[in-house]
Amino acid sequence: MISVEAWTTIRYLKAQGLGTRTIAKEVGVARNTVKHALRSEGPPRYQRPPRPNPKLEPFREEVRRMLTNDHFIGSRIHKELRKRGYDGSQMAFYRFLKKIKAEEGKTKACIRYETLPGQQGQFDWSPYTVPISGSLIRVVVFRLILGFSRKRHHFASLNGSQASAFEGIEHGLWKFSGAPKELVVDNDRAFVISAHPAHFKWNRRFLEFCGHYSMRPIACRVRNPRAKGKVERPFYQLEEHFIKGRSFDSFEHFCRELERFDEEINSRGTPDNPGKTDRPV
């Protein structure tokens, strides 16, 4: 049985127009496995946990240090482990090393660059205390912004739960009439169970959500807001031009005014083309 991450990757690659043979080679599975993943209505429900190698686990941190800090190649690391008492097979060592490289590589998913139309969307949210009907109410504003056109969609909620986050993303996809190929998010528990480089782990429900829409999830590095600057910078504009100094009759009134604010901002075009509003998304 393949992992949820492999299932998500297969559906993402298929959405990009790749054939089953190419996908199978890219993911490292059989073609029948790819076909089964594409036919299935949902991701695999469970996966047998990998069995740790008792001869190599005691050397895990040493291997990681030699790989990331000392930049030793595999044969050098294997030689050093032999000196330290490792007496297992060379094949088992390289399988172990491959897993560690995969773990370390997951943190390299953070990307900050100009993207092509339809390539990338970025998602985040921010809580605000807003005067509504004479009381101060905590409102969470979610935002999905497209990397190329900078078009954005806000969705307001009275809570910041995972369900509300998913609803905020879906509202944006509906507004933009489709899903981007990639979705950049931060390391909130709604998306990432563990953001530690040594044992990065996606939230399963989020992987299933991305797989449903054939999006590739990308996590930003911890404490690196610049990687998601297209999202985090516009929150300043929201605070200064929409929320500050205003009050609202009801939560519904807040949502209607937020929609009008989106229409006004999106109609201005982009910073480099302020008069051009028909830029591809």
Structure report:
This protein has 281 residues and is of the alpha/beta class. It folds into 3 domains: 4-47; 57-108; 120-266, Nucleotidyltransferase, domain 5 (2-Layer Sandwich), CATH 3.30.420.10. Helices cover 42% and strands 16% of the residues. It has helices spanning 4-15, 20-27, 31-39, 60-68, 74-83, 90-105, 162-176, 204-212, 229-232, 234-243, 251-266, and strands spanning 120-132, 135-146, 152-157, 182-185, 192-194, 201-202, 216-219. The strands form 2 sheets. Strands 3-2-1-4-7 form a 5-stranded mixed β-sheet, with helices on both faces. It has a two-stranded antiparallel ribbon with strand order 5-6.
Secondary-structure topology with pairs:
Blueprint: H1 4-15, H2 20-27, H3 31-39, H4 60-68, H5 74-83, H6 90-105, E1 120-132, E2 135-146, E3 152-157, H7 162-176, E4 182-185, E5 192-194, E6 201-202, H8 204-212, E7 216-219, H9 229-232, H10 234-243, H11 251-266
Parallel strand pairs: 1-4, 4-7
Antiparallel strand pairs: 1-2, 2-3, 5-6
Summarize the structure.
The chain has 281 residues and is an alpha/beta fold. 42% of the residues lie in helices and 16% in strands. It has 3 domains: 4-47; 57-108; 120-266, Nucleotidyltransferase, domain 5 (2-Layer Sandwich).
